[in-house]
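Bumping with the actual sequence this time:
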Amino acid sequence: MIRRRFWRMLVHRRRAGHIRLHPLFVALMVVAVAAGLWQTAVVLFLLVVLHELGHAAVAHHLGYTVEEVLLLPFGGVAKLGYGRIGFAPRHEALIAVAGPLVNLVMTGFALVLRAVHVWSASFTHLVNTINLWIVIFNLLPALPLDGGRMLRAARSRRIGYLQATREATRMAFVLATVLVLLGVVSFWAGYPHLGALILGVFLLLSAWEQRRQSRMEAVRFLDAKRRQRWARPQTVRALAAPEEATIRDVVERFAPDRYHMVYVLDEQRMVRTVLEEDEVLDAVFQGRWLTPLREWLER
């Protein structure tokens, strides 16, 4: 039922350009076909589509509007209405894990078809190899990969959504560098591994784009918290901040689905005042992003 509703939605929105192929994905397909690996290209395309369908179907089931589906090498991204993904850690984790789970299910399905002699051993090996590579790559703890989203979901309640996003983005740069170096070393050693180099470049570009959009993502997250209306009592999270800290320093520690009370400490580490989350968010949208707490309180 979920899948049927989602496909109807995709067909309805196809003309608006809401299904896109990443340039690197197109390049990978062209290279594969040019090298005579058209069967590999077709299998990869279909498995990536199924992977992304898993993400989008779960997102749709949880009540999110899927505005765009972007197909990437070895995965994809479902862009949700107003960037809401991540603002509910449990939802982000469920949506992220859905894609790799689809590939694992497809691996089992391929083995069944092989057991009943529908698929050949070579074709089953091809499908399962690509499936496992998609799962392994996507579970790396780096944004925008599924593993990075799960890392952010796990860490956001402890260190704050914006801090968790920054942490997962840094991991992307580290892992991308490692993959690129492995690819270069493999060529130098005479055992070229083009896959590691392609994945490293893709992850590096994706991490750079993630960093470039970080300010807009921060604004969306904070605006969503400001507009949110609670239907039931929420957990209160306390923060202590020195007077010298800026408004930005404070809100970077704000976690999803928590209400924050900020204890402002003076030079003697005594509590000068207590700020409610709504007061701090109002300061953000008054343009006081870099204003120290002391200056803001004095005004």
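The tokens above came from a reply further down the thread. Strands lie at 19-21, 66-72, 75-80, 236-242, 259-265, 271-276.
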